[in-house]
Amino acid sequence: MKRHAAEIIEEYGPFPGHDTVHGLTWDGQQVWFAVGQQLLALDPASGKTGRAIDVQADAGTAFDGRYLFQIAERQIQKIDPQTGKVVGTIPAPGNGNDSGLAWAEGSLWVGQYQARQIHQVDPETGAILRTIESDRFVTGVTWVDGQLWHGTWEADRSELRHVDPATGKVLEAVEMPAGTGVSGLESDGAGRFYCGGGNSGKIRAVRRPA
Predict the structure, then answer these.
(1) Which residue numbers in the chain have pLDDT < 70?
(2) What domain count does the chain have?
(3) Is the CB of residue 185 less than 8 Å from the CB of residue 176?
(4) How many beta carbons lie within 10 A of that of residue 106, not counting itself?
């Protein structure tokens, strides 16, 4: 297994009025991130927040190219980012114990923190299609260039882990600095990961290993 020390490119936040960052996602131009009762849009070039959507947002966030998906306790909400309206919901597989969320291959991928699992979920029904086991707590989840990555956060240690989606085997790991939590994980499809920083209230851009 390859191991890398994280190269933190930029830090954003803390953001006024918000002390925790939960899930986050990339829509091609901006980072949407969950702060409890809102989704906020961050321009990574300026570091400034723009739009806000008032919606329960206490765990993972994903974007399918048109809609935002947001875990809210026992359900996953489908949100039209143009209007801010919730246009559908499905049950969340962990019944309130879900963490990360990603979109890939026509499915939602849901991390379960203490269960140490990632579920592939049908976005129309919420049915679990398959389950990937991990040996660490699972926070954020993302896919990039056919690679499945997830965040871990235990005690004061966090990593970004590239895993084999068939077996769950860890192929490489990016070690975050001690005391740096990872609550959400997303790729920009190129050279950056965006990491939610939990109760630090920050978002960190980390260079993706070549």
Answers:
(1) none
(2) 1
(3) no
(4) 10
- The pTM for the full model equals 0.96
Note down the domain range covering 143.
2-207
Give the pLDDT of residue 5. 98
| Cβ atoms 195, 201 nearer than 8 A | no
Contact 194, 24 (CB under 8 A): yes
Helix (H, G, I), strand (E, B) or coil at 199: coil
- The encoded tokens of residue 43 equal 């321009």
189 within 8 A of 20, measured Cβ to Cβ: no
Spell out where 92-182 has E strands.
98-104, 107-112, 117-121, 128-133, 141-144, 147-154, 157-163, 170-175
Question: Which CATH number characterizes residue 75's domain?
Answer: 2.130.10.10
